[in-house]
Amino acid sequence: MPRSSGAKLWSTLNKAATRNARRMQRAVNKTLTKPMTEAIVRNAVKQSAAVTAATQRALTGVVSPVKAPESRGSGRWEEGAWGAGPLAPRRYHIFVPAGATASHRAPMLVLLHGCGQDAASFAAVTRAAAVARESGWVVLLPEQSSQANAQRCWNWFRPTAQGAAEAGLLMALIDQAIRRHPVAVDRVSVLGLSAGGAMALMMGLRYPERFAAVGSHSGAVPWSATNAAQATRAMRGQRGPDAQAMHAMRLGLAGRRPPPLLLLHGDSDGLVDFSNATATAAMWMHLQPEGAHPLTGVPARRIQRGMRRAVDVFDWTASKWPYLRLVRIEGLGHAWSGGAGGHAFSDPAGPDGLKMALRFFLAAGG
User: Fold this and answer.
1) Class of the 77-363 domain?
2) For 267-295, b where at least 16 C-beta lie within 10 A, e where not — what string?
């Protein structure tokens, strides 16, 4: 039976509608669906890359990683690696101010970062370039490797083996920096935070003739531990320096005083108790050579500038020159005093730790 005109019309309209629907779907695919799908894929790739990058950063042992420091004013940043053997290589960053030349050699500060940091993050926390540019110091920032310590801690609690090797590597890097840059060889000081502070003190006692001054910010007493368990107790203030190590250090000093010492420590530090600072000061006093003129205590001073945290400053002098300074920072936890905001182990409310250190090092002959 032949189709009616109505049936033919319906069939024609259906075919036309189907063709139009296909054309519309192709247009939708071209103008909307495909771009959206591609955007979703790109976003997923970016998210995956971000997750991967975050995972990679976490595996580096750095809590708040930053890019390598860049020169934004006068002076220049350089970076490199040094060392040989099973603990090498170690990377470093060094800032050289514009005024440092072969005919005008600058003092150098070696800055040792703490656990969970690297050279770049520590440079950002301390504002190393800005302070060094203003003061005219060369600043050397060695970097602990995650292979030597998963948390990037300097191994101050392994003083007889790995700690000694790391101290030797650091000394070799310092010698390299002196050879390559306009550094005054007799004006080198070392300062560190936390594990870096304990290592800085070890450096000062292992190589007393090489440093004009040393300093520790929130660091433990050196030679108070030989393993991680003992280190935890030492950080809580439950262990002091080993008696045999003290005797060996006295022999190693060979009648010299240890280098002038700066101790910066918060009285609210829950990780490394403030008693570590007082115990380190007592250690330095105990290591004074027999027959030397006794240290002279200076009345304590309380200082507060603006809304910054207040500090109590305790000074001892040797022959009228500043020799030992203990700075107790009120309300400061385990963080760099006056550090840049937005970083781990940094307290912007404190007075500037790096500026305090440079003032003491200059006054003490650094």
Assistant:
1) alpha beta
2) bebebbbbbbbbbbbebbeebbeeeeeeb
Q: Which of 78-87, 107-116, 275-284 has the least mean pLDDT?
A: 78-87
* pLDDT tens column, 267-322: 999 999 999 999 999 999 999 999 888 999 999 999 999 999 999 999 999 988 99
Return d(Cα 14, Cα 20) in angstroms, integer. Answer: 10
Q: Round to whole Å and give the CA distance between 277 and 218.
A: 8
**Which residue ranges make up each domain of the chain?**
1-59, 77-363
Instruction: Give the predicted TM-score (pTM) of the model.
Output: 0.83
> Which candidate, 216, 240, 206, places its Cα nearest to that of 112?
216
Q: Which residues pair with 264 in a beta bridge?
A: 217, 327
